[in-house]
Amino acid sequence: MASDSGAGVAAGDPQAPLAPGPLLRIGDGELEVDLAPHAGGRIAQIRYRGVDQLVGPDDGFPAAIAWGSYPMLPWAGRIRRGRFAFEGREWQLPANLEGHAIHGVSMWLPWQVEARNARSIELALRLPQDRRWPFGGSALQWIEAGPQHLAMTLSVRAGERAMPVVLGWHPWFRKPERIEFHPSAIYPRDADGIACLPTVAPTPGPWDDCFVNTRDVVVHRAGQRLRLSSDCDHWVVYDETAHSTCIEPQTGPADAFNLAPRVLEPGESLQAWFRMEWD
């Protein structure tokens, strides 16, 4: 793996290598969590009873987009062509994957450690106010590791100006033997591969799709049973690779700034939670 993030990552290239940097560990009993604050505030690895749960930085998939579990904000998934309308004008974000803008800006930026103890950590990020994201704002995440659970909260606060927002998590789980997933609807994808409306009944996988889902997701792998829960009502599942499956709770759909925009007024915040529990 490269020893530095590189210019491509600074510019938001999701396929450029991103080194984890110094790792911090939290944990309680049989659960260990390695965090990489400098690599987008992401979790580099989750280890429960000695079993690695995530595709990690040393697994031969060094692209910034393809390892660990990272927060996505101030948008999640793709924004079509990086374009959206807000406050009566058109905005253009850098298109960095297949002609679209993907997964926000937070996954490439270093987060600051605000507080830490043996079981938990709080990280903070000031969002840019430039061509990558013209609105500014800030973000916080809190992560707690208990004996059999990992609890996470993520929040975004608008700065001096209003801003659209979607937030979520993007864990790269090592390939499960199976998952229990019962969404109520799926967003169909058009010729550009972008989610569109209206939603329809869920279709069979393999998937790289956004779903409406309010039920827990259960992951079975290596003799372990992992339950995923969240107050998010949209989940993306990406299982087209042989080595991994991504199961991503988020507060809105892909291309939300065009499909279902949510706006934060100056100083207003949005918060969500995500929990992993082994049983």
Topology:
Layout: H1 6-10, E1 24-28, E2 31-36, E3 42-48, E4 51-52, E5 69-72, E6 78-79, E7 83-86, E8 89-92, E9 101-102, E10 112-116, E11 120-126, E12 138-145, E13 149-157, E14 163-164, E15 168-174, E16 178-180, E17 185-186, E18 208-212, E19 217-221, E20 224-230, E21 234-238, E22 244-250, H2 256-259, E23 263-264, E24 269-278
Antiparallel strand pairs: 1-2, 2-3, 3-4, 5-15, 6-9, 7-8, 10-11, 11-12, 12-13, 13-24, 14-23, 15-22, 16-19, 17-18, 18-21, 19-20, 20-24, 21-22
Report on the structure:
- With 279 residues, this protein is mostly beta strands.
- It has a single domain (6-205, 236-278), classed as Distorted Sandwich (Beta-galactosidase, Chain A, domain 5), CATH 2.70.98.10.
- It contains two helices and 24 strands.
- The chain has helices at 6-10, 256-259, and strands at residues 24-28, 31-36, 42-48, 51-52, 69-72, 78-79, 83-86, 89-92, 101-102, 112-116, 120-126, 138-145, 149-157, 163-164, 168-174, 178-180, 185-186, 208-212, 217-221, 224-230, 234-238, 244-250, 263-264, 269-278.
- Strands 10-11-12-13-24-20-19-16 form an eight-stranded antiparallel sheet, with no helix packed on it. The protein has a six-stranded antiparallel sheet with strand order 5-15-22-21-18-17, with no helix packed on it.
- A hairpin with a 2-residue loop joins strand 1 and strand 2.
- The longest helix has 5 residues, at 6-10.
